[in-house]
């Protein structure tokens, strides 16, 4: 009987170990790089990105609306929460795409979008992400990749509030929108050419 119980426990442990190991790994990255219509459209195309949600983070008011965030008064940034598989794409690769697809040297601004809600920011979810983000920014500054100094914030993860439903998959829903035509699509096309090997 003892032998049966022992073998049964061993079998259960092996089963759960195999089950847990068979689950795909998932990690979270949160980036703010201007209008989240652009950021979402870019990152959702990457291999290893399992889901992406636009939203608001880094502010003071709970459950803010788009209209409230747009005033700049709430302190939130338009951001995206990315769930990704680190076995397929690394955090370093996500950082590479992030810095290549927006201007991290303009304070509270991306092109004609002006305000703290459009600031460049990385909301790290682990100490390792903080170290990697700061090291990559140091590398970019020392390598003179950009003409000006990087002003991207590297700050701890803050409460993240999902954006309204109409903001999700905005480009697909509104391809004829002038902002999509003149801002999102050109940026997306440039990204696809530059990171062709990383696309789904």
What does this structure look like?
This protein has 200 residues and is α+β, with helices and mostly antiparallel strands. It has a single domain, classed as Peptide Methionine Sulfoxide Reductase, Chain A, CATH 3.30.1060. It has helices at 2-22, 36-43, 66-70, 91-100, 127-142, 170-173, 178-194; strands spanning 27-33, 49-57, 77-84, 109-110, 113-114, 120-124, 153-156, 160-162. The chain has a 6-stranded mixed beta sheet with strand order 7-6-1-3-2-8, covered by helices on one side. A two-stranded antiparallel ribbon has the order 4-5. Strand 4 (109-110) and strand 5 (113-114) form a beta hairpin.
Distance between the termini: 53 Å
The radius of gyration over CA amounts to 20 Å
| Number of separate structural domains | 1
Into which percentage range does the β-strand content fall?
15-25%
- Mean of the pLDDT scores? 92
SS field, number of helical segments: 7
The CATH homologous superfamily is called Peptide methionine sulphoxide reductase MsrA
What is the name of the CATH class?
A: Alpha Beta
Anisotropy-based shape: globular
Helix-strand topology string = HEHEHEHEEEHEEHH
| Class by alpha and beta content | alpha+beta
Main beta sheet: 6 strands, mixed
Residue share in helices? 40-55%
Strand neighbour order, sheet with most strands:
7-6-1-3-2-8
Count all strands and give the number: 8
**Low-pLDDT residue intervals, each spanning 5 or more residues:** 15-20
Under the CATH scheme, the architecture is 2-Layer Sandwich
CATH topology value = Peptide Methionine Sulfoxide Reductase, Chain A
């Amino acid at each position: 009987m003892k032998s049966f119980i022992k073998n049964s426990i061993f079998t259960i442990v092996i089963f759960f170990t195999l089950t847990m190991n068979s689950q795909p790994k998932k990690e979270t990255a949160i980036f703010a790089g201007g209008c989240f219509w652009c950021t979402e459209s870019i990152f959702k195309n990457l291999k290893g990105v399992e889901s992406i949600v636009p939203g608001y983070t880094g502010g003071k008011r709970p459950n803010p609306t788009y209209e409230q965030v747009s005033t700049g008064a709430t302190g939130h940034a338009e951001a995206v929460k990315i769930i990704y598989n680190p076995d397929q794409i690394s955090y370093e690769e996500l950082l590479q795409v992030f810095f290549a697809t927006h201007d991290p040297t303009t304070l509270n601004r991306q092109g004609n979008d002006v305000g703290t809600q459009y600031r460049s920011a990385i909301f790290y979810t682990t100490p390792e992400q903080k170290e990697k983000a700061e090291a990559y920014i140091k590398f970019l500054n020392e390598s003179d990749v950009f003409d000006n100094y990087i002003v991207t914030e590297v700050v701890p993860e803050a409460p993240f509030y999902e954006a309204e439903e109409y903001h999700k998959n905005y480009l697909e829903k509104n391809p004829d929108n002038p902002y999509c035509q003149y801002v999102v699509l050109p940026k997306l096309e440039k990204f696809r050419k530059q990171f062709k090997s990383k696309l789904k």
